[in-house]
Amino acid sequence: MGVKTLMYKADTIRIGGKGLVRSVTLGGDASIAVQTMWKQPLRENTLAETVRKIAELEQLGCDILRFAVPDAPSAEAFVKLTRITPMPLVADIHFDYRLALRCMDGDAAKIRINPGNIGTEERVKAVIQKAQDTGTVLRIGVNTGSLPADLRNRMEEEMHAGREADEARAAALVEGACREAAFFEKHGFKQYLVSMKASSVRETVLANELFAQKSSVPLHLGVTEAGPLVSGIVKSTLAFSKLFEHNIGSTIRVSLSDTMENELIAAREILMECGKRQGGIRLVSCPRCGRNGFDVHGFVERWQRRLFAEEKDITVAVMGCVVNGPGEGKFADIGITGADNMVLLFKRGVIVQRIDVQGLSDSERNAAVDAAFEKELQSL
Ligand code: SF4
Question: Is the Cβ atom of 321 under 6 angstroms away from ligand 1?
């Protein structure tokens, strides 16, 4: 297997746009949309708090938000939520097609189903029909665990015969996805995406490359069960960057055993470093070493989310010492460093403020530094 054509272009589809819900274009020349997934059960009695949190996720670059909908109470909460937030929401449904039908009574942007575990064709057809009637996009989410028996058997036979496991599994995933796509098309339904997720980087890349050679249906990318913060980001970065080289991927989720915020920050950084997203704040910070005279880690911890929520197109440098601080950060629009009892703020390599922090407690020092930094930041 391997990609023969260099660049792919997916079809364009639009999700959202119903009621209050923002419309997001996927595929074509649209930018790659970022998703994360809510990590708690969705319940009606916490909807106000959920809406507040969604607004924060939006500031961190969340374009689409997915919720697991495993039961009737979460479906009811989902329907209500779609009417009180502009965020395009996706209901993630397994097994019970009636939950998918109920979620489409609200302003759902998208329903993710795995046709392999929804049951009979009649049930999948009912979901397709309601999606058609309500203008809801569907995502076919395929995984090796729920492939039809003939594909699973063929995959195992190929592996016994010596075919590499990643290749055999990727081929089976693609075949499974193509069958489901053919079923959708047979019923005249075109507003759908496909995802084929695996926990192996290579299998993820092979499956998506192979699918992109066969179809222009937009792809949702993700390495599933990618692991905790560091390993999950490494795997997602490797898989996405390889696929982005061929313009494969219309929407992404960085799956982490970590917070939604970190999933969004990781996605943002991957897109920026791969040249798929322009603008926004670029945060440059030193790793810190024995020369440090400024608490880089503490400052970054306090400021990272706030900075990423800013709508400025600037570089921010956070450096541990004056030896390298203003010098290494001279291309930064704004930077901060320190020495002894002095914290220095600089703009494009020129020191603009010295803050004397001698004798201050940790909280007093942080408050003084943050206030000064905020003022300089807002002046940009
Ligand atoms: Fe060390 Fe200073 Fe470089 Fe940070 S900027 S890594 S503290 S030498």
Answer: yes
